[in-house]
Amino acid sequence: MLDTNVLMHDPTSIFRFDEHDIFLPMVVLEELDAGKKGMTESARNVRQVSRFIDELVQDADKHRIDTGIELPGEHRLNGNSNARPGRLFFQTRLSQPLLPDTLPGHRADNTILEYCLSLQEQQPEARVTLVSKDINLRIKATIIGVHAEDYFNDKTLDDLDLLFCGSAPLGPDFWDSHSQDMDSWQEEGRTFYRVQGPQVVEWTPNQFLFAEDDSQFEAIVRSVDDQTAVIELIQQFHGERNSVWGVTARNREQNFALNLLTDESVDFISILGPAGTGKTLLTLAAGLAQTLEANRYREIIMTRVTVPLGEDIGFLPGTEEEKMEPWMGALMDNLEVLTQSDEGGDWGRAATNDLLRNRIKIRSLNFMRGRTFLNRYIILDEAQNLTSKQMKALITRAGPGTKVVCLGNVSQIDTPYLTETTSGLTYVVNRFRNWTHSGHVTLLRGERSRLADHASDIL
Questions:
Q1: Is 19 helix (H, G, I), strand (E, B) or coil?
Q2: Where are the beta strands (DSSP E) in 162-281?
Q3: Any idea what DSSP says for residue 77?
Q4: pLDDT of residue 273
Q5: Whose CB among 77, 104, 290, 414 lies 3.0–4.6 Å from 296's, allowing a Cys bridge?
Q6: Which stretches of the chain score pLDDT less than 70?
Q7: Architecture of domain 259-458
């Protein structure tokens, strides 16, 4: 049995249970009807669910509805293609009042639990499972003896510890086991190596490699073919001479990030890291350098999900950009760092800020559908609050010459029903890891202040 929030979260969930039968009580259909209005993501999902159900029932007569409507899809029960397909059942008769006295009233959740108990009594040979993303409903179900589970199909990973981090250390015996038949050459001032060995099969394109000894060897994987890989020594952005818009890398991971952000061949970048690791500052500095100095992009577009941390402050006046400004404090703070030069005094700083504001556009995600961005540098901040469907809708807006950078911290998710393993940011990191024009970096060390670092550790 599916709870309403599962259908609102994933409109295709009725097709995700393979050989299992699905039951939808009338109260779920009523809740779907109540949630179909509006332009929110959940309202769009409800309308899509209604269309799916309508397609299934429009040709079904009363007898087929009573005996279940066969669900389309591939049925992979232990590799048996002849396995019985799942069926969709609706509530066609009243349920028996089987709820304990501890659950009084006619709330929708209690009605769903009552129908679960009724099904268990009607079909004792079958196992009735309530699938819901509502933790409290699952707790109540367990208390009264109904098996309840979360909806797992939207999980990208089983555990966040399995998430790709974007870099890998080289073992102490790496060169001994991989130096046979090794080639090296230089091309346009860059140094390349072609290496072979057992560790190569674990690498992915644009993954960073580093030696943990004193050699300070750092490279990026350019291509992988079976047990042969081409790697390139990366640029070092640690010194002032190699700064990007005045910003230098303070640690190894920041250096990896700047290499990706300034690489013309990389179209999609994801950067994860806790607060204070420099995600926004590095991304904005690289964007300004490539937009204003190299003229690689026409402008910078910055956006984020407008999910409040506390109580919502209500409607905001002004244009789209003015409405988004309260959500863009991170942008303003980082621009202040990037324009703090004393040259020209207050007037010079004001002129610089005006110039930067003309090339940096703040846009709302609500108006992204249908747009195409050409030669833009798109920064998606707080991307951990996006669902996988929203992430797809945004990234597919990118036209020729556009780079998309997704920033976020999966331990700070504010969107209801999203978790670390179901976040759209986790989804794209996992899906893009083998593409030759994408890269990922996980920042580890906080560089904001000693107070912020200490607070992150102890609070």
A1: coil
A2: 167-170, 183-187, 190-196, 208-211, 218-225, 228-233, 268-272
A3: B
A4: 92
A5: 290
A6: 61-63, 73-83, 104-105, 306-332, 340-354, 366-367
A7: 3-Layer(aba) Sandwich (3.40)
